[in-house]
Amino acid sequence: MDEILAAARPVDWSKLGERTLCDACLGRLFGKLGHGHTNEERGAAVRAAATLRTGPCWVCSGLTSRYDALARLVAKKLELWEFDTFLIGSKVDPEVQGREESLWSDLALANQEALKSEINREVGKRVCDLVKKEPSLANPDILAIVDTSFDHVDLHVNPLFLRARYRKLVRGIPQTRWPCNRCRGKGCAKCGGTGKMYPTSVEEILATEIMRESGGTGHALHGMGREDIDARMLGSGRPFVLEIKEPRKRHLDLAGARDRVNASGQVEVDAFLPATRADVVAVKSDRADKTYRVLVRFASPVDEAKLKEEMTILEAQPIAQRTPTRVVHRRADTTRHRSIKRAELLSTDGTVAELRVTAEAGSYVKELVHGDQGRTKPSLADQLGVACEVLELDVVEIHDER
Ligand SMILES: [Zn+2]
Ligand SMILES: [Zn+2]
């Protein structure tokens, strides 16, 4: 307390004039000095030393005596939610803030704390005691904003993130919900009122179970890339983060949810694990190579030795790919350069061949095979001098670091 009293001694208290302050507002003027004291304790000591009179507080009008009540308000609001960590924020009347700032300059102070910061800390401590949960600055489950002018609490419930890898066992379902292209999701005759182009998606199959458990208001699937709708996703699966918005519950029966997803027969997951927003960034930025299984039909028979030779040639050179015809309506028409890490022939009967191709992230594998009317160069069709049709495509491995 000595440090605080030493700082208070040279202050010209006559500058206060008729204004009186509560202990907390007085102590907060020295809030950055002396550890282990509340501002109220600091203020009481300064008042005694400087013989300052008491009276209604000119700065806060009694707000600092209402922290218990505000904390109860927050705790009441939090009752409906399951969470582990929280953070208190506050809105303070700009006039109150203006008054405290004018006091700082009138008294020429240097170690004051702002009222807002005191509110956040003091209400936070009390909420912590009431709800028996920990505050978290970096990553709270729930942020409670206390509006001190209206005694109103707004909750910002942060999403729940879960990560896993999915396998898509069937063709014909998109990774994420695909809104109907006629009604854009409202529901029309074309989509049978569903608002969707496809009855389900990997996202919906995964999210349905977690939504049921968590009571969230919405969801998003963040995948490490995506496979075509008609491609399966096999091997050890594709990493993703599932985001559940405003979950009521965060401690879920994840094994049960996994089992129910796996019972769908369409999509499988390995195990849902807790994740954070940082995992979303990581999964979105990964540039992993991928291995594909391609079933291709030749317009006329191709000799096995010739096929093997041309595939070896494809491996050796960079591939220039203009945005494929099938996606150019929704993506910029540019040219990307990718390399084929490995191209192997698994089997062939002369007109149909099964290939295994490992390509750099972002490669268009169907186009690598059929050439897309010269937009991908070189292509297998070009090399062979025979038109190629992709019958089936599967992603069989994603070579990520996760
Ligand atoms: Zn006050
Ligand atoms: Zn529609």
Your description of this structure?
- With 402 residues, this protein is an alpha+beta fold.
- The protein has helices spanning 2-8, 23-28, 39-50, 67-78, 94-106, 115-131, 202-214, 254-262, 277-285, 304-316, 365-370, 380-384; strands at residues 85-91, 134-135, 142-147, 152-157, 160-168, 218-223, 232-245, 267-269, 273-275, 289-298, 318-322, 335-348, 352-359, 376-377, 388-399.
- Strands 5, 6, 7, 8, 9, 10, 11, 12, 13, 14 and 15 form an eleven-stranded mixed β-sheet that branches.
- It starts with a helix and ends with a strand.
- The mean pLDDT is 94.
- The structure holds zinc ion (ZN) (2 copies).
- One zinc ion (ZN) binds next to helix 2.
- One zinc ion is lined by residues 180, 182-183, 187-188, 190-191, 195.
Summary, kept brief:
The protein has 402 residues and is α+β, with helices and mostly antiparallel strands. Helices cover 30% and strands 27% of the residues.
What topology emerges from the helices and strands here?
Layout: H1 2-8, H2 23-28, H3 39-50, H4 67-78, E1 85-91, H5 94-106, H6 115-131, E2 134-135, E3 142-147, E4 152-157, E5 160-168, H7 202-214, E6 218-223, E7 232-245, H8 254-262, E8 267-269, E9 273-275, H9 277-285, E10 289-298, H10 304-316, E11 318-322, E12 335-348, E13 352-359, H11 365-370, E14 376-377, H12 380-384, E15 388-399
Parallel strand pairs: 1-2, 1-3, 7-15
Antiparallel strand pairs: 3-4, 5-7, 5-8, 5-9, 6-7, 10-13, 10-15, 11-12, 11-14, 12-13
The chain binds zinc ion (2 copies).
